[in-house]
Amino acid sequence: MNHAAYLTGEQIGKDKLGQIYYRALTVYLTPDSDFSHARESLIQSAVDLYGDNSTEAKATEDGLNQVGITE
């Protein structure tokens, strides 16, 4: 997960990355969340903040894909 965040941050910057991860942590994720739910939550957070098909949503998905968190 940390490497996915790093890869995403390289594409969109630390500030936007922080906003996406903070939203996912405070709105969507629970103590029982798994990697699949984390993926959904992070992508949805990016969409919530920046819109469908935004650079930020695509970068979030790409970062997760690159480390094998695909579903």
Give the arrangement of secondary structure elements:
Layout: H1 2-12, H2 14-28, H3 35-50, H4 55-66
Helix pairs in contact: 1-2, 1-4, 2-3, 3-4
Protein architecture, described:
The protein contains four helices and no strands. It has 71 residues and is mainly α. The model has no long low-confidence stretch (mean pLDDT 97). It is 76% helix and 0% strand. The longest helix has 16 residues. The radius of gyration is 11 Å and the shape is globular.
Q: Percent range for helical residues?
A: over 70%
Distance between the termini: 13 Å
DSSP summary: helix tally:
4
- Given helix and strand content, the structural type is mainly alpha
Unreliable residue runs: none
Cα Rg: 11 Å
Order of helices and strands: HHHH
What profile does the largest beta sheet have? Answer: none
- The shape, in one word, is globular
Average pLDDT for all residues: 97
Q: Tell me the number of strands.
A: 0
In short:
The chain has 71 residues and is an all-alpha fold.
Features:
mainly alpha; about 75% helix; about 70 residues; about 0% strand
